[in-house]
Design goal:
The structure is a homodimer.
Chain A: H1 2-8, H2 20-23, H3 29-32, E1 41-44, H4 56-69, E2 76-79, H5 86-94, E3 98-102, H6 108-115, E4 120-121, H7 129-135, E5 143-151, E6 157-159, H8 166-172, E7 175-181, E8 228-234, H9 248-266, E9 278-280, H10 284-293, E10 301-304, E11 307-308, H11 310-318, E12 321-326, E13 328-329, H12 333-341, H13 343-347, E14 350-352, H14 355-358, H15 361-367, E15 370-374, E16 377-379, E17 384-385, E18 388-389, E19 393-394, H16 401-407, E20 410-414, E21 418-419, E22 424-425, E23 427-428, E24 443-446, E25 449-452, H17 458-469, H18 475-487, H19 503-511
Parallel strand pairs in A: 1-2, 1-5, 2-3, 3-4, 5-7, 7-8, 9-15, 10-12, 11-13, 12-14, 15-20, 16-23, 20-24
Antiparallel strand pairs in A: 5-6, 16-17, 18-19, 21-22, 24-25
Helix pairs in contact in A: 4-5, 5-6, 9-10, 10-11, 15-16, 17-18
Chain lengths: ~525, ~525
């Protein structure tokens, strides 16, 4: 069979499929997706820009088109690690191929379908996904489609450039399609730590990980060969994450964060030099903050995060970061090239884990993680909206921000103080959607400054957030709101004027600016 | 010195103070509180109705009055486990003796001072308190005042009827005042499990507790004798928690919860018979739910919770509950008598732990806790307001509800569907304060029914919450809101009409009813 498949495409590399049973299953993507039926729940690999199966989405989209052309029906429930490669997300959304999407997306076509009510979207903490699927909340997983770097002589799987929920998908799915991507450098083997010790309660036991570089699992994924229905060879580079060079705003934010770290060290709340394990969300601001660490007097830093961005490679290369743990790479074209060209250097300093471990509440609490995440907006009392523009339209999703914020040691949210050329303030009287509550948000940072909300009552927080973080153009409006709210006879512990609480958002809708 | 003290009061019982150093420190409360200076941070024992120092609050209130009468100033920052005995809270609030209060209160006088802005209040997850104080967010703790049952021959402390943060208070305070309460039955000794293994990062290690009845610590508290400045004998019963008999509404809620448990067992998500460890918040509804378990086909149930209420004693006596772990007792007069009269029976089935362990995210996640907490109101998408009436006026505080909701296995919120004789709906279009987000709230229950929100997108959740949980009188208003919100061109993933989102609350303010 392998001979015939070799004829089908150039991707087939026998050195990547080293077990005869799996060689016998080699086929192309078009044949593989015939395993997928209308209404199936399909769980695929992919976390951020890394590890999305390359052949699956084009083949499924094509199959959906042809089934529909013949008068049939075909759409699926799609489960992933987090976001997947944009082109894959877009292809399936464009053909209305996804009935339900879980747990995260960040792609315009899918976003549009969700906001118009055409696609069901369940926006879930990334640490909860594996346990919820295992519990059966999403029904049976019919098919798993997982990209791997290779299949070993004894039928184990060398993981690709992300781990995400792949361990769980392989465990729970009725059928498995493997994509074996020859582009992935051989050098990736050994970078992963796949932990097979999780369970559903009452069988759970302590997870014995106490440092970012601890290894508690094995380098390879397991799969029951009897469940594998197709092996699809591919040879395609991972997508690149879009990254821009740090600008003045993100550098100013980074400066405030670094000053805060020095303040924490001086106060004895973080060890000098090594600090505590850092987590940074995806994006330009987080990338800039990490890049800024190179200028600090830090050494032996560790990161325990979801993704590894370009700046992390630089910090490892320079020796500022001793170890980075994540569940996926999220590198630009240049970053990907840097990694692939220097795998020997990076492999000893990077560990990729299942996202149930990278984001696990037990580990996040134990390690004392410093969580740094982006946001859409915060209100004056420290409630954060990460997901819903105007309270109604989803942007991406909560992702792992809640995992790190809720159980971390220091929970920080970073954002430019304005958007849309100054028309939109990131600091508002009341957020119309809350993803992180005032009980959890400890520090807010914009380019103007940093508000440390720890141990402060709501009335003390509010003035601090305005004076430190809001753009000066919005400060008079925010103080006026607070003055009026506090002057009411029933002002209460958290003064608000409900009829004016969304005045910034109403102004934006009516005039195109929160300045009204 | 002990002789002279014996003359001061009848409370002194030498068998309770079995170490000569501590006998030498015996004094009365009036003398003890002279150790407290204006601006001090004072951390006291007490969690719910159990373990509040009995002599401290009256003595401090009296001292505040006399200091002020002499033209002086005296107020303190007061840290506790959670709520303390109402009479103690009220006494100190009445004399404006508290500048800052943390982490929880549930008493009318204190509530009034907080809502008028006269008292600063920091409303903190109970699992975070010890680590935040240890980190120094509240400055130095000048004085700890801790009730104990006895001081042993080797200078260790037999804990009282609650543990709370006492271990941390004794560790971090500069000076310690011990109240030795002879009323506490000798039989309490051995009921506690005080874990000394927590640390600040990066020194944290796994906490090796995997079952509700595991013991990982020691029965006694430690104190540095050099820090103890006074030992005050008392002989006074703990306060009683107010409990009413289950009424029809709370019994209906309990019925829906029991049916849900059967549904989970049938779905293979919980073990038959023993279920998973249960947590129930304080109050009549939680008490009724637990009482209802006696009627189910359950055995060997375990509870891993904050408090133990009356119904738990009944379940233990009947053999339905094998073990209950908590940080405090919250018993009625009758419950307290039942416990004290039968300590031999209950001691083997109850473990009292520090609240950093009873509410610890690591343990809550590992055990797979079923969290059941009360609420003020929920919105149609599953966001819950636990703390702020009308979004501004604090009721009590978040307490431990977030600890169990965020990291638990099933997160449930229970409430009667209406309050104020039907004028107030517990289901509203949008809550004006969010303590638990849509990402965390899984199940909402009122007397009308149960809405299981797991794996549902916002638009599917909203109709279910209205139809299952809202009072029929409010359903047309809620559906009308959703109809109008969903009909908007920019309805989005979570349809809302910001200018109408608080119409229920505006109606209540204007007319005295959310029916408008």
């Amino acid at each position: 069979m392998s001979t015939s498949v070799q004829q089908r495409g150039t991707a087939y590399d026998p050195s990547r499929i080293r077990h005869p049973h799996f060689r016998g299953l080699v086929t192309d993507a078009a044949s593989a997706v015939e395993q997928i039926a209308d209404g199936d729940t399909v769980a695929i690999s992919g976390f951020a820009s890394a590890g999305t199966p390359k052949a699956f989405a084009p083949a499924l989209a094509e199959r959906i088109r042809s089934v529909r052309a013949a008068g049939g029906r075909l759409s699926v429930n799609l489960l992933t690690g987090a976001s997947v490669a944009s082109e894959a997300e877009a292809m399936l959304a464009e053909v209305d191929g996804i009935a339900l999407r879980m747990p995260y997306q960040s792609e315009p076509t899918a976003r549009g379908k969700i906001n118009s009510g055409e696609m069901d979207y369940v926006d879930v903490h990334l640490s909860h996904v594996a346990q919820q699927v295992w519990q059966g909340h999403y029904g049976d997983v019919d098919v798993a489609v997982v990209e791997v770097a290779a299949i070993t002589e004894d039928g184990k799987l060398v993981p690709a450039m992300s781990v995400g929920n792949n361990k769980t998908w392989l465990d729970v799915a009725d059928k498995v399609i493997l994509e074996v991507n020859s582009w992935i450098p051989d050098g990736v083997e050994g970078m992963h730590d796949i932990y097979y010790g999780t369970a559903l309660p009452p069988q759970r036991r302590p997870i014995m990980l106490s440092r970012a570089d601890d290894r508690i699992g094995q380098p390879l994924l397991e799969v029951d060969p009897a469940k594998v229905v197709a092996v699809v060879p591919t040879d395609q580079r991972d997508s690149a994450s879009a990254l821009t060079k740090p600008d003045a705003v993100s550098e100013a934010i980074a400066g405030h964060v670094l000053e805060f770290f020095q303040h924490e060290v001086a106060g004895g709340r973080m060890p000098a030099g090594s600090l505590l394990p850092l987590q940074a969300g995806i994006g330009n601001v987080a990338n800039a903050v990490l890049a800024g660490l190179a200028a600090g007097s830090f050494s032996d830093l560790t990161c325990y995060s979801e993704v590894i961005q370009d700046s992390m490679l630089q910090l490892i290369r320079e020796g500022t970061v001793a170890h980075a743990s994540a569940t996926a790479l999220a590198l630009s074209e240049d970053g990907l090239t840097e990694l692939v060209d220097n795998f020997e250097l990076y492999r000893d300093h990077i560990t990729l884990r299942p996202q149930e471990i990278s984001n696990h509440p037990e580990i996040v609490r134990r390690l004392g993680i410093v969580g740094m995440n982006g946001m859409l907006e915060a209100d004056v009392y420290g409630n954060v909206n990460s997901t819903h523009v105007g309270g109604t339209r989803i942007m991406n999703g909560i992702g792992g921000s809640g995992d790190f914020t809720r159980n971390g040691y220091v929970s920080m949210f970073l954002s430019p103080s304005t958007a849309k050329n100054g028309a939109v303030s990131a600091i508002v009287p009341m957020v119309p959607h809350v993803d992180h509550t005032e009980h959890d948000v400890q520090v807010i940072v914009t380019e103007h400054g940093l508000a440390d909300l720890r141990a402060l009552s709501p009335r003390k927080r509010s003035r601090l957030v305005v004076d430190r973080c809001a753009d000066p153009a919005f400060r008079p409006l925010l103080h006026d709101y607070l003055d009026r709210a506090e002057a009411r006879p029933d002002a209460g512990n958290t003064p608000h004027i409900l009829e004016d609480a969304f005045s910034f958002h109403a102004g934006l809708a009516a005039t195109g600016s929160m300045l009204g």
